[in-house]
Amino acid sequence: xxxxxxxxxxxxxxxxxxxxxxxxxxxxxxxxxxxxxxxxxxxxxxxxxxxxxxxxxxxxxxxxxxxxxxxxxxxxxxxxxxxxxxxxxxxxxxxxxxxxxxxxxxxxxxxxxxxxxxxxxxxxxxxxxxxxxxxxxxxxxxxxxxxxxxxxxxxxxxxxxxxxxxxxxxxxxxxxxxxxxxxxxxxxxxxxxxxxxxxxxxxxxxxxxxxxxxxxxxxxxxxxxxxxxxxxxxxxxxxxxxxxxxxxxxxxxxxxxxxxxxxxxxxxxxxxxxxxxxxxxxxxxxxxxxxxxxxxxxxxxxxxxxxxxxxxxxxxxxxxxxxxxxxxxxxxxxxxxxxxxxxxxxxxxxxxxxxxxxxxxxxxxxxxxxxxxxxxxxxxxxx
Length: 383
Fold this sequence. Notes:
Blueprint: E1 7-10, E2 30-33, H1 60-76, H2 85-96, E3 103-104, E4 110-111, H3 156-162, H4 177-189, H5 198-208, H6 212-228, H7 239-249, E5 267-268, E6 283-284, H8 287-296, H9 306-309, E7 314-316, E8 330-334, E9 343-351, E10 354-357, E11 366-369, E12 376-381
C-alpha cells in the first residue's frame, strides 16, 4: 500500500569516528515508517526496528494467516512465483507489528481494529496530501477521508481491487488476518511476479510503499524471518571455525551498542551514531565488536573496524558470489562494493546463505540472511 506523504528517517553510517574509538557502523538503509506511524489504540511505533526476527515474535494466529495466504494465493494469481510467508511477515512487521496488542479471534478477526491516521492533508503522521473517501467509512470508520486499515494497512480504495475472502466466511475484510494476508499476497504478486528474483521482490515491496527506505526495511525483516526458518547446518563444522561461530551465536539477543564490544565480550559503547543513537548506556556489541570478540575466542586478534578487518586473511571477492563463502568467514558490505575503503558492515557467515549479524542501533544480535544487508562486498577467510 502506497500512502501519501510517508515519513522516514535514515540510519547513517561511518567507518571511523574522528577523535573517538573507531567503530563498526549501522546499516546504510532508511527506516521507513509507513501507515504504521499513525496507528491508533495503543500500538507503539518502534519504526519496524525491534528485537527478534524469529517466528517467535509473530502471534501464532497471524503466522497461520501468512502461511494460509501463501497456499491460497495461487488460485487468485496463478502466474505468481516465489510467494513465501516471510515476505508477508516482513510487510506486516513494518505495517502493524503483526497486530501485537490486539485480540485475534479463531476466525482471524482483529479487534480493536487497526486504523492509520486520517489522510486529510493536515500533516498528521507526515501526510500532506488529502485522499478522498472511497468507502463511505465502511472499512476505515469515517467518511471524512481515507485512512489505512488492518494489519497490512490497506487504503479502502486499494482493498477494493485486491480484497478476497481468506477464511471462508464470504466476506473480504481487511480487518481479518486471513483476508488481509491473502490480499497482501495478491497485491505483491501483481500480474505474475517471480518473487524468487531479488529485483522483482524489491519492485513488489516498492509498489506497496514508494520509499527505498521502506523497501530496505522490509527486506531486512524478510531476511530475518527466512533465516529463522532454516538450520545453518553446522554439523560438519569443527575446530576453531566452530569456536568462532558458537561464540557469536551465543550472543544472540544481546543488544546492539554503537562502539560496544571487544575481545573480552560485550561492553558499553560510545556516543553517537550519525543518527544520534548513543551506545554509552547499552552493554552490547556493534558489528565489528562482535566479530572481534568471536575471533578472539579462537586466538585471533582483529582490528576494530569493519573496513580494517577486510585486510586480514584471504580476501574472497564479491564477484565470486556468496557461494564462495564458508562457515566462519567474515562477510562484508560496502557503499561501493569493490572499494574496501567504503566497507561499513561485517558479519560472520554461518552457511546456507546466512550470517550472525549485529545490524544497527535498536536491534539485537540475530541470525540473518546475507541478503538482509545491502552492498555485498565479499568476505575474508581467516581459518
